[in-house]
Structure formats: C-alpha cells, structure tokens
Amino acid sequence: AAANLIPFLIKAYVENPHDCHLLLYPGAFNTTTGPLHWELLQRARAVDNQLFVATASPARDANADYQAWGHSTVVDPWGQVIATTDEKEGMVYCDIDLEEVAKVRANIPIRQQRQAHAYDG
After folding, report:
1. Is 71 helix (H, G, I), strand (E, B) or coil?
2. Which residues face 53 on adjacent strands?
3. Which of 16, 26, 67, 77 could form a disulfide with 104 if both were Cys (CB 3.0 to 4.6 A apart)?
C-alpha cells in the first residue's frame, strides 16, 4: 500500500499550488505497514508541503481477507497529529485554522528556495 501512495506524494511535492492548504489522501495500509508508515508519511507530507494533510482509511473488518490499519487522521502544517481515529469505524472531527499554513510558510520559506526545474523531465 505504501508504494501506491508514492505517485500522490511526488505529485503533491512538485505540483502543489501556493494556495493549497489541505491535501486529502485515501489509503488502506495493512496491519504490517500501517503501524510503521501510515502516520509517518502523513506527517512528512504535511511538513514537506507546509499544509494540512487528511487521510481516510477504511475501518478494520476482522472477517475480511484484507486487514486495514484504519486510523484516519488529520495532521497540521507543523507535522503534529491534531485528530485521529483507531481501527474501528468512526469519523475524524477537528477545527482547521488555515492561518497556520501562512504562519508556517512565513517562518520557514522553503517555497522560495525550491528549484522546480530540477523536477522537470
């Protein structure tokens, strides 16, 4: 499942417009990769792109062949988890302060330092 997320990550990094404040990713990591990579990748994308990241995962079904990790989550631009669920069916609720995106981008101006031409081709 982690490999399926990679094209989204590259696209987000290269093509993320300056006015984007939230990336939403669906995913269904399993019980092996989920504990290791699910939150880590979300936090990394939030910091890399200086925006909020929200992920939606199916709940775990003990009777299914595929055991999803679950844990739908919202991460702020500083890489902090601000809301999450467990493996059970549920909904993630939280307030998102879009001004946080502007604060992060003002304090750490990586967008002015990107070399977009390095990704062409």
Report:
1. coil
2. 23, 75
3. 77
Cα separation, 64 vs 52, whole angstroms: 31
How would you write the pLDDT of the chain (121 residues) with one tens digit per residue?
454 555 555 566 556 566 789 988 899 999 999 999 999 999 999 998 899 999 999 999 999 999 999 999 999 999 999 999 999 999 999 999 999 999 999 999 887 777 767 766 5
Name the DSSP class of 34.
I
Residue with token string 């890489």: 79
CA dihedral 54→58→60→63, nearest 10 degrees, is -170
Residue owning tokens 């070399």: 115
Nearest Cα to 59, choosing from 48, 51, 49, 69? Answer: 69
Q: Kindly provide the residue ranges of all beta strands, DSSP E only, lying in 4-111, ordered along the sequence.
A: 22-26, 52-56, 73-75, 81-84
Instruction: List C-alpha distances in Å: 87 to 45, 54, 56, 60, 72.
Output: 22, 16, 11, 5, 8
Distance of CA 36 to the CA centre of its chain: 14
